[in-house]
Every structure is written in structure tokens, then in C-alpha cells.
Amino acid sequence: MKNKCLTALFIGLGLIAFSFTTARAEVKQISMGTATVGGIFHNIGGPLAQCVNKAWPEVNITAEFTEGSTENLRLINQKKMELAVITPQIGYLARKGLAMFKGKPIDTYAVTRLLPNANVWCTLEKSDIKTITDLKGKKVAVGPASGGLGVIARSQLEAYGIDYKKDIKPFFMGAGEMAEALKDGAVEASFLTEELAQMVAMTHRIRPLSWDEEVLKKFLSNRPYYQGYTTPPGTFKGVDYPTLTIDNGIQLICAKDLDEGLVYKLTKTIIENLDCIAKIYAPAKAITPEFAATEIGIAFHPGAIKYFKEKGIWKK
Q1: Phi then psi dihedrals of residue 293, to 5 deg
Q2: How far apart are CA 300 and CA 94, in angstroms?
Q3: Which of 167, 84, 107 is nearest to 132 (CA)?
């Protein structure tokens, strides 16, 4: 009798262990590349993973720290990751096999568009700089000497016919340094993220500089990885007018061969849990289902398109 009981016990424990192992095996592990600690990619990627995991127990997305867009694309290409947060410009260059991807194109699909990622040219309200054209001859912080932010800033100046080497006094600085330099008067204008401009506006009266619509239209005509973006009145303390600028974009992408059903469910889960993401990371309040479904830089995955069509927000 004792042996029978022990046998029954072992069988029962075996079944429990088997069930536990099976349940664990049914949870799909997904790796998602973001960027460095404290960066906006991880700031949005972490909450996204947390909310999706909570709402969809059959998957477990891990938001990984990486060096950013370029590394994320290469990791996807090496099949070391299934998802990544990137800027559309880098995704576009990878798809076309240009710049750092020359001769080695990497094709991926978009899942959803994430936060607007706009920078604004800012000066202090007391300045005589009223337009971007007025930056000529001024001390201007144009981002770091190397890196994406500086490249973006200098290409925007070029759209106004401003050569940063000849027409202004350039100051090469990191994002935070540009904000401090503007507050201290070390520079007369800075290329600031929306969040940094808001920070400066808490202690100083600022004047964000709007783009001219015709200049913007021409600039965007051959850059499908950017879009126009208007900051609403009140975005910056003391600024009661909208500011027309450029959205550099942030999007969630996936490996091109990722299962359509999985991407459909992933897209659905993200959109249905935008409130959850925004509770963890407040800037995510700017993400609407319609905004998430707008194409920028690269095409959407068929699974994402299927969901957006069902929801009635697909614009094509």
C-alpha cells in the first residue's frame, strides 16, 4: 500500500512538473532592442513591454539595452531579436542599403509608430531672433559634432540655406548642454527636444521658432522618414501659439518574417493598452491609435495592417 501511495505521489508530482514546464514552454519569449539607459527609446520601450506582458500572458517581451537604432537593426538581421525601437530614418537607410548599411540592406516592417520625436529651434524671448533665417550670424548650439542629433540639426539649417561652418557660430554640444547653454546665455539659440524646451521654459521665457510651410514642404519632399509636426499652444510655458516643426519619429519594428498572427495580436494589444503605457511614461499620452497607424520611413507588417483596417484607421 505504501509503495502504491509513493508511486501515485511521484506520478502526481511528475504531472505537475510536466504541466508547469508545458505552461512555461507556451510563453513565447520575445527580445526587443531599445537603446542606452535613460534614453527615450528605453523610456517608451520598457513600459510598452510591461503593459503588453500584463495584458497578453502568452508572451514575454524583454526590453533590452542596446546602442540604439543601427545596432537594433543588425541584431534583428542576425535573428538575435524580434522587435526593436528605432528612428524611421535609420530604418529607411537600412532598407535601401545606404550610408552605414551600404551594400548590406536590412529589410524590416513597422508594427506601430510610437512617440512624436520633435526638436525645436529655441531662443529666449528677449532675443531679436524671430525666425530660423535670423539664426545667421548668431551663436547657435547645433548638437554634438558626431551622432544623429547633430546631423539632423545641420540638415535643417541647410534647408534654410544656412551653412553651419560659415553662416553661424556653431557650438557642438549634447542635448542637455544645449539647454543649459541657452539658459546661461552662452548661445543665442539651441536645437532642443520638446522635453528640454519645456524644462527651459519653466525658468526662462522662450521663443520656439516655427518652420515656414513652403520650406518644410520642400524639405520633406525627398525625406519620407520625417513628417511635419505641430506643437499645440501651451506646450511650452508662456507660449500661446503653435510651433510647426519636424517629427524625427520613433517606431516599433519587427523582423520581416515574424508571424502575421503574432504581429496582429501584438499590434492590437499595444493599441488597446495605450492608457497603461501612458500611466507609466506620461509622454506616451501623445500616442493615439490614428497616429500609431501612420506610415513613416518603412512599410507596416501585414499583421499590423490587418488590425488597423479592422479598427478603421488604416489610411491607405
Answers
A1: -95, 5
A2: 15
A3: 167
pTM value is 0.79
Q: What is the pLDDT of residues 227-284, one digit of tens each?
A: 999 999 999 999 999 999 999 999 999 999 999 999 999 999 999 999 999 999 999 9
Q: What cell does 186 get?
A: 552662452
Check: CB of residue 113 under 8 Å from CB of residue 249: yes
Q: Which three cell numbers stand for residue 127?
A: 532675443
Which H/E stretch holds residue 123? strand 118-124
Question: What are the Cα distances from residue 252, in Å, to 63, 86, 290?
Answer: 12, 7, 15
Kindly tell me the sign of the dihedral angle through the C-alpha atoms of 197, 200, 202, 205: negative
Tell me the pLDDT tens digit for each residue of 131-157.
Answer: 999 999 999 999 888 666 788 899 899
Contact between residue 233 and residue 213 where contact means Cβ atoms under 8 Å apart: no
DSSP 133: G
Given the DSSP bridges, would you call strands 118-124 and 206-209 parallel, antiparallel or unpaired? antiparallel
Element (H, E) at 279: helix 274-280
